[in-house]
UniProtKB/TrEMBL annotation, chains A, B:
Basic and acidic residues: bias regions: 332-343
GO MF assignments: DNA-binding transcription factor activity; transcription cis-regulatory region binding
Protein name stated in the entry: Substrate-binding domain-containing protein
Family annotation (SUPFAM superfamilies): lambda repressor-like DNA-binding domains, Periplasmic binding protein-like I
Region listing for Disordered, in residue ranges: 315-343
Compositionally biased residues, Acidic residues: 316-325
Residues of the HTH lacI-type domain: 5-59
CDD domains (UniProt xref): HTH_LacI (cd01392), PBP1_LacI_sugar_binding-like (cd06267)
Top-level taxonomic group: Bacteria
Amino acid sequence: MKRKITLKQIAKELDVSISTVSKSLRNSLEIGEETRLKVQAFAKFYNYKPNNIALSLKNRKTKSIGIIIPEIVHHFFSTVINGVEQVANEHGYSVVICLSDDSFDKEVLNMEMLANGSIDGFIMSLSKETQFKGDFHHITEVINQGMPVVMFDRVTNDILCDKVIIDDKAAAYEAVQSLIDNGRKKIALVTTVDYVSVGKLRTDGYEKALLDNGIPFNEDLIIKIEDVDTCEITISELLHARAFDAVFAVNELFAVTIIKTASKMGLKVPEDLAVIAFTDGIISKYSTPSITTVSQSGEKMGNKAAKMLIERLEAEHDDDEEENENYTTEVIETHLIKRESTD
Amino acid sequence: MKRKITLKQIAKELDVSISTVSKSLRNSLEIGEETRLKVQAFAKFYNYKPNNIALSLKNRKTKSIGIIIPEIVHHFFSTVINGVEQVANEHGYSVVICLSDDSFDKEVLNMEMLANGSIDGFIMSLSKETQFKGDFHHITEVINQGMPVVMFDRVTNDILCDKVIIDDKAAAYEAVQSLIDNGRKKIALVTTVDYVSVGKLRTDGYEKALLDNGIPFNEDLIIKIEDVDTCEITISELLHARAFDAVFAVNELFAVTIIKTASKMGLKVPEDLAVIAFTDGIISKYSTPSITTVSQSGEKMGNKAAKMLIERLEAEHDDDEEENENYTTEVIETHLIKRESTD
DNA sequence: TTTCAACACTACCACGTTTTCGTAAACCAA
DNA sequence: TTGGTTTACGAAAACGTGGTAGTGTTGAAA
C-alpha cells in the first residue's frame, strides 16, 4: 500500500526544492538539464501525477461538470448523459451526476452540494415538483455566484441561461398532421399533467394541428394521466366507445400500454387504431407492433448542452468579468420515425 | 455576481482572525458567546458554506465515489447507478460517473483520472475489452494506492476486492429447468462471445440443467452472437429447421429479436416456442408477448455495492492501517418472473 | 576590479479549511 | 507581588500545487 507520491516527497528524496521538482516536470528552462532529467525519471518511475484536488483549489476550477436530472432509469435521460459524457471527456472534463427523483428538495440539496466548489457548471433538467412549485431560487443563486447553467428539455422561462430544447409544439404538430394525412379524424392525445412544461407545449401543437385541418378540438379526447397504472382502465373505456381511431401519446410508455390494451380488446394496430409516441426509446423499437415515434435525440441534446457549457467555462477564463450574457436557446431538430403502428 | 464568501472574507469583515471564524461556526466553546453569535449571524446572512475542495484537500477525502461502467444507455446499468446513488446520498456522498464504452483504453484513462484525488473509492463493472485482454493492472494499481474498489456483475477472479454478483450459473440453471418442467426438450441457448465472464457462467448453468435432466448437450443449439443485427438470420434458419422448441437468451435484446423473428414466420410464442431471457428490463415487460425473465436487480446490486464501499471507506478512518483485507463477494438473489412467453 | 548577465535553483505566496499550539489579559488565591 | 487558572482569541502549519520573485554563484566583458 504505497500512497500516491507528491512533489514534496520527490523533492525530499532528490534533495532539491519543491519548486525545482515542479518546474522540472513542466519542462521549465530555468532548471538545468541534468536536474530536470533526473527529476523526470524519478517522477515517471514513481508514476507521479499531480493531485486533482490541489489543482482544483489552486486554479479555482475542477474540470468537472454536474448533471442534475429527475431520474436515470429512463432511456431519454441516459442518452443525454451519454451525449454529455462524450463531449466532456473530449475536453478533459469528468461528469458528476445527481438525481432529483423528481423531488424539489433533492434537487435543491444536490445543487447546493455540488455548487460548493465541486463542479464548474451545471447541466440540468427540472424535476416535476420544481416545475409545479415554480420555485427556482436555487438555480438563480447558483447563477448569481457566476456558475454557468445549461438547462435542457424541461426548462423554464423564469431563468435566464443557456437552454437546449426541442420544438415540442412543432414536433407534436408534425405527428398529429401525419395522422390526419392518413385519414384519421378522431385523434386522442394521451398526456401528463399540465405543469410539466413539455406536456403543455405538446398539447398546444396537437390542438393547432387539429384546428388547422378543420377538425374540432374535443376536450374529451385529451386524456391526462398521472400514473401509468391507471392508464389502462381509462383507455379501455374510451376504446370501447370507439371514441377515437388514432392516438398521439406523449411518451412511449403510454403508447405501448395503449397498444396492449387495444390488442386485448381485439382491435388491430394500425388498422383500427394508429399510434404515435413522443420520445424515441427502446420500447417503441421492440414493441409489437413497433411504434412510430417523434425522435428526440437525447444524445444530440447532451452533446449540445455540454458544448455550450464548456464553451462558457473556457470563455470565462478571461477573468475580466465581461458578463456578456448573451444566452442562447438551442433547438434540436426532431423527425418522425415511421414504424408499424401507423400506416 | 457575488462569488461565494470565504472564511477569510468573513474574518476581514468582522475584524477577527480566520481561526476565530472557523471555530465560531463549529460552535467551539473557545470562542466567547458574543463573538460566536456575531460570526454565525454574519455567516448565515451571506450564506456561507465551506468549500468542498478545500475540505477535500485538508481531510484527504472527497466524499464522492466513482462509478465506471461500460455504458449507461442500458437498463441494467442505470438501475445499478440508481441503487448506488440512493445509498451514496444517504451517507452524504456524491457520485461521479465515467463510461468506458466497453473500451479498455477509456477504462484505464477514466480510472487514472478519477484516482488522482477526485474520489474516495470505485464501483465498477469491467468493459468487454478489458475482460478480453485480461489486463487489470490499472485496477491493481488503484487498489495498491489504498483506494477501495467494489466490482459488480462483470468481475474477475484476478483481482482481490469486494464484489457483488448474481449467481449466474444457478440462475441459468433455474431458467432452463423451468423450461424442461414445461415439457421442452430442444432448448437453445443464445449467448454472447465467451470472454464476457457472465456469458460463460450462464452457459455452464444451461449445460448442467440439461445434463441433470438426461437431455443430451448439443453444441449446435448454442448460438453465439457478437452483433445483434446478425442475430435474426441465424435464428430464422434454425427456426425453419424446427431445431428447437425453447430458447434461453442471455439478454432481453436477443430474446425480443427471437420472438419477432418467430412471429414473422408464423410461429406462436409460447405454444411453438418458449422464451426466457436473462436480465429483467423494460423491453421484456412491454414486449408482446411479454417475456419471462430471470430478474437481476440492478438496484439491489447498486445498493449493496455502495454499502460495501462506504463501509470500507468509513472503516479506514482508523488510520492505523490495519489492512484486514477480508474481501467478500456478495451474491444477489435472482428469481424467475413468469410472463407470457412461457407456459 | 567592477559590472552584468546567465544560470540553477530556492523562497514565498495563494487557494480555503481545520487544528494545534501559543499567549495576552483578566481574575483569583496566597 | 507572585503564581496559577481561566477566558478569548490569534498565529501558523498542513493538505499539494504552480507561479512570481528573488538569491547566490559563476564567468566573462568592460
